[in-house]
TrEMBL record:
The lineage of its organism: Bacteria, Thermotogati, Deinococcota, Deinococci, Thermales. Residues 65-244 form the BPL/LPL catalytic domain. The keyword Repressor applies. It catalyses: biotin + L-lysyl-[protein] + ATP = N(6)-biotinyl-L-lysyl-[protein] + AMP + diphosphate + H(+). PANTHER family: BIOTIN PROTEIN LIGASE (PTHR12835), BIOTIN--PROTEIN LIGASE (PTHR12835:SF5). Keywords: ATP-binding, Biotin, DNA-binding, Ligase, Nucleotide-binding, Repressor, Transcription, Transcription regulation. It comes from Oceanithermus profundus. The gene is birA. This is Bifunctional ligase/repressor BirA.
Length: 310
């Protein structure tokens, strides 16, 4: 299913790898002249793809989240096809387009930058070049009520893939000092109570963003985008396969959580709720306990730390 090749991409994107290929070899594989390859590489570079030329030919800059580097790092059921864009308004919309065109589970859209990246609750997700921005098409056979678990599973996989920080409910990845490193956005296309498909979007800062409260993965050691993405898929795979039995997902999430045991104020659609975050319910909702021992559950909202992240 290669409808997107003509839609928005150059076939060269699927031939380039992290090691050099000569212009001659690429030309033979694509059935074009060496001059045509050279021109196409130049066009990709102008569009913002991290492509390098040298005496030995052409290659991607090592570690970029391009199709071949990704497919070599992860060859499981959660990766079918990779659409690699220099720029997207939002990879969520591009992935939705793919899903609507019939893409199977594992269709992935990755962009070098986004001009209209979005986060949860309609917030903007700033997406300059250098970060990791991707959206994955999933087609789970799940009841609608199980969707929060997908989102927790994604958070747990992200924390494992990043190898640093912890999770703020439901799925923000925070640096050890509480600044935000990465976030997850799950959008569902529903028909009645049935999930037609999900678009699971992940944004990871690599360089430290200018906004207050944001951190970058590169602050914590060598971080390679293709490695993080592949590790994310590998970590998500068993959790996704264990759905809808929530136990494995809840345990994985709790193993990376920094929310439980803290005093929080959760801004829910029904207003703020306060208490100590003590547990997760089987449906993924957060359990708060007041000083008098009264327990309440919140199924959606934004967590704020009472007294800061200490
Ligand atoms: C959040 O923390 O609010 C979620 C942020 C999710 C951002 C990612 S970047 C890739 C994908 N495309 C988008 O427009 N958003 C998600």
């Amino acid at each position: 299913m290669r409808y997107w090749l003509t839609m928005r991409a150059d076939a060269l994107i699927y031939e380039l790898d992290e090691t050099f290929s000569s212009g001659e070899a690429l030309a033979a594989r694509l059935g074009v002249s060496r001059v045509a390859v050279h021109k196409r590489v130049r066009r990709l570079a102008e569009a913002g793809y991290p492509v390098a030329s040298g005496p030995r030919g052409y290659r991607w800059r090592p570690g970029v989240p391009a199709p071949r580097p990704l497919l070599r790092r992860y060859a499981g059921p959660l990766l079918d096809e990779v659409v690699y864009l220099a720029e997207a308004a939002s990879t969520q919309d591009a992935a939705r387009e793919l899903a609507e065109a019939g893409a199977v589970e594992g269709a992935l859209v990755v962009a070098e930058r986004q001009t209209a990246g979005r986060g949860r609750r309609g917030r903007t997700w700033l997406s300059p070049a250098g970060g990791l921005y991707f959206s994955l098409v999933l087609r789970p056979e799940l009841p609608l009520a199980a969707l929060p678990l997908v989102s927790l599973a994604a958070g747990a996989a992200l924390a494992k893939a990043a190898g640093v920080g912890g999770l703020k409910w439901p799925n923000d990845l925070l640096a050890p000092d509480g600044r935000k490193l990465a976030g997850v956005l799950v959008e569902a296309d529903l028909r009645g109570e049935e999930v037609r498909y999900l678009v699971l979007g992940v944004g990871v800062n690599f360089e430290t963003p200018a906004q207050e409260g944001a951190a970058g993965l590169a602050e914590f050691g060598d971080a390679v985008r293709a490695d993080v993405l592949a590790r994310f898929l590998a970590a998500l795979e068993p959790l996704y396969q264990s759905l809808p039995d929530p136990e494995a997902v809840l345990a994985a999430w709790k193993a990376h959580a920094v929310t439980l045991g803290r005093e929080v104020r959760v801004h829910t659609p029904a207003g703020p709720k306060e208490g100590t975050a003590v547990d997760l319910e089987a449906d993924g909702s957060l359990v708060l306990e007041t000083p008098r021992g009264k327990r309440t559950r919140v199924s959606a909202g934004d967590v704020e730390w009472i007294g800061g992240f200490v």
